[in-house]
Amino acid sequence: MFIEKIHIDTFGKLSDFDLELTPGMNILEGANESGKSTLAAFIKFIFYGVSSREREQIMSWKTGGAAGSLTVSVDSHRYRIERAVVGNREAVQLVDGENNMPIRHALDEKTPGELFFGVDAEMFVSTAFVSQLGGTTAGGTKLSEGIENILFSGDENVNTQRAIAKLDAARAALLHKNEKGGRLYEIDNECALLEVKLAEALRIHEDILSKEAQLDDSREKLNSAAQKADGIGAKIQQFEANALIELFERRRLIESRISVLGERLRTDNDRESAAASRMDKYCSRLVVLKKELDETILREEECQQYRVSRELEEFLKMGGKDAVETKKKRLFAKAKGCTAAGVIALLAGIALVLFGIMPILNEAAINVLFAAAGGGLSIVGVILLAIGARFRGQASDVELYYDLDTLEAEAAEYRSAQETAKFTNLAVIDAKRRYNELCDEIRQEYGCAPDELSEKHEQQKRKAQESSGVKAEYDKHISLLSQIDAQLKPYSEEELRAMVDSGVDISDVDASELSSMRREAEFAAKMAASLEKHCIELEKELAGLYPIADDPKLIADRLSSMKARRAELQKKHAAYKLANEKLSEAGESLRLSIAPRLASEAARNMAAITGGKYNNLGVGADLSMSAETESGQRALGVLSAGTQDAAYLSLRLSLISLLYSKTEPPVIYDESFIRQDDERLKKLLRLIAAGKSQSLIFTANNREASLMRDIGEFKHIRM
Question: pTM for the whole thing?
């Protein structure tokens, strides 16, 4: 393939740009910032598009978009590749250059570069797009894998390493190397779980069947026991109901007989009963009056037992509280009068004595009369004071001796007792009178003492009750009626008659068998209750089993399906393992053959560039290179920058001839020779010109064009 024409609508700094190229070598010369790298990037953009990270760099500064086309010639057929980017939208189409019509579906899921060259953008950049200084090296595991893929399958996208990895991943997905993971491991676990689940489902299923059989049997026995209990109970109930109805009828007969006997008994005993009733009244009155007499005599005795203290007796003799108070006041008054008179007499006597002895002061004779009168009057005063003190002491003694409030309360109690005693005595007299009158009446009526009346009353009652032979029979019927009433108390004759069912045959029931029939009915009822409880327990157990019970058939079917799936996956696992081994062997064999082929081709190119100085190169599996020097095989990193560039350019030329089997691409050199001297550059240009590929050399100086003038034809384009 070669590019005939480049047209740029807008791309980076370039717009409305057109350029025609020759199929051989094209040298595009221009100063820095003239758009050389932009033009090289545009060619890659048309073939492979642009990543979102690079999109901002290619957008036109004026329009904010990028668009253009390449007209290419492939095997004498012309095509036009058009591509445009606006914002996040990108469009590309392939147009037939002969009829100017788009070729539909030509670029479905492919870029133009992949369609024409059979490699992706990364492979293209690593081989046919030789960029500026620092980016001339080619190599790496990914490029090595791409080379292997192309040589192995003819398609770079068919990645053998990825295929091996996918096969290994597919195998590992089925079963890990340690056999502890993968689908087969999971299926084995699922089969084990299903087998456990199947065993559990079978156990639960058998348990359910067993319990359902037990439940059916228990229900049948329950119905039988309930029917037996109900049947015997119904017979007992009917028998007892009929017996109680007969007892009600017998009760009515006994009541009738009691009525007749009672009437006869009352007729025979009317007179005796009347006498006994009259005597009963006398006895009752006698008891009441005797009780009243005894009580009044007792109260009288209690009143007579009241005793008066000596202080109270003296207090009462003195006339009570008022009299004592009067006496005390009178004594205090006497004491006060005597004291006052004594003081006056004493003072008067002292005055007379002083008056009688005053003449002594004048040395005169004492007035004996006044002195003697004063002495006598003083003595009288002292005597009166002593008498007053005595009266005051007596008044104090009265006040201290008598506790007037207490004595007054005791006096009131004593007077109340005296009053009560008086009335009690009158009551005793009245009670004795009435009792004696009744005793006289009893003696006149019955001719006996009152204490004999009670015995005579009992004799009269017995006589009234035993006056006829009917009494014993009457009492017997009364006792029998009482017993029957006690038996019939819980029952109603109407309800019993309503309970009678003529459909229940009780002809075979005997009263002597009732106890055993009751025991039998009770046993049947207990059996029914036990069976009912057992049925409920079974129903609860079944209710708990039904929700957790899985269908064994479904589990067995699933287990069978899982085992069949396991057998299928085991075959697939073996196939993956075998394919992996074979593909790995083939890939290894191919990789072992790639490096020598590349090394041989690159060595020829390197020898042509260096004039035979380096004619033996080594190429590793990752496309790392080494060269044989005078001191032996050395990695390129220890050689000069120019030699490194020459070696990697040789490798790229070898890769292009090896990889691009469909069609060789135009090779772009963007400032790729700046570290080569003129001699090596001339040999390199001669090697490039001798190749079949179109070459586009972007440079900032005239060196490449000057050297090519001595080599051969080329197109020189100044930008």
Answer: 0.45
